[in-house]
Write the C-alpha cells for this entry.
Amino acid sequence: MRVFGFVMLLGTMCGLGCGSSAPTVKENLPPIAQVHGKALYRGKPLEGILVQFHPLFDMGSVKFIPEGKTAADGTFAIESGHKGAPVGEYAVTFTYPDPSYDPQDGGTPADRWKGRYSSKDKSRFKVKVKEGENQLETFQID
C-alpha cells in the first residue's frame, strides 16, 4: 500500500511539474499595433527626439515603454523591440537628448529641454492605440 501511495504521489508531482511549460513572453504580450506619427518643436522638425508611450492601462505581466525616435523630418515609428505598441491608451512624453552623450560613459543622456516634456504625469499628450495601423496626428510641442 505504501508503494502504491508513493507511485501516486510521484505521478501527481510529475503531472504538476511536467506537461505544458509556462507561457512565453509573446503569449503574455497584449496585441501589438503599428504606430507612426510626427513631432514638431515650435512648428519645426527635430531629429533625435525620443518619443515614449507610457501605458495608462494594465499591460499584463510584460511591462515596457514603447518608444521611437524622430527622423530629420520629425516622423517616427514606435519600434521598441515589438514593431509597435500594445492596444490601449497612453500618455506621451518627449525628450531631446544631448548629442554629445556617449553611451560608453553610462548613465542617461541629458535632456536639452531639461525634463519639460518628459513627465508622464504632467503630459498633455494622450493617444489611444487601436488594432491595425495607427497614423497619429502631429504632436505640436511648444
